[in-house]
Design goal:
Number of helices: 7
Shape: globular
Distance between the termini: 26 Å
Low-confidence stretches: none
Number of strands: 0
Mean pLDDT: 91
Strand content: under 5%
Structural class: mainly alpha
Largest sheet: none
Length: 179
């Protein structure tokens, strides 16, 4: 699942070195490559990967054709809101984005169990909360420039780290509880 965040990492890195349009295009390319990797290996494309490709590609096209001069934090905010919406969409349609990744390491007979579904819904909700916290951090940077930048960085890293740790620990805790 962490590989699915590679486009966001590419965007974050390149956004500091190239124009926002180029950083968005690079992230869209990375997303497209991840989808290609899934398809070549015989797996279907995942909600997060497809959503990410649409998000970065759409934003790159928009910025290119609109000649919008977004500040870096404005582009980051748009990306983070897009990620939040992708995760929310996966919950609304009843297919938490984590489920597609969990199926790669969980026996098929467990895929329809209420525990499997509940676990993935909870993990996806935690990621949703983490992305919501990141959007709040972006908004603080955009509208309260007097707040030190490191506060936003700490909040972002803390949200991602917390969601990652929860993702790693929660399934085992739920399995132990079920026994």
């Amino acid at each position: 699942m962490l590989l699915a965040f590679a486009p966001f990492i590419a965007f974050a890195v390149f956004n500091h070195f190239v124009a926002p349009t180029s950083a968005l295009a690079i992230a869209a390319f990375v997303s497209f490559a991840l989808i290609g990797r899934e398809l070549v290996s015989g797996r279907s494309a995942k909600i997060l990967e497809v959503g990410t490709c649409i998000l970065f590609g759409g934003l790159a096209v928009y910025v290119f054709f609109s000649n919008t001069d977004w500040p870096v934090i404005g582009v980051k905010l748009a990306v983070d809101i897009g990620l939040l919406l992708i995760v929310l969409f996966s919950l609304i349609i009843g297919r938490p984005f984590t489920m597609q990744y969990a199926r790669e390491s969980v026996p098929r007979e467990l895929w329809t169990s209420p525990q499997f579904n509940r676990t993935n819904q909870m993990i996806t909700l935690v990621w949703l909360a983490a992305f919501f916290a990141i959007v709040i951090a972006d908004l603080v940077l955009l509208y309260l420039p007097e707040v030190p930048h490191k506060i936003s960085v700490i909040l972002t890293i803390g949200a991602l780290y917390g969601a990652f740790k929860f993702t790693m620990a929660y399934p085992d805790r739920e399995e132990a509880r079920a026994r």
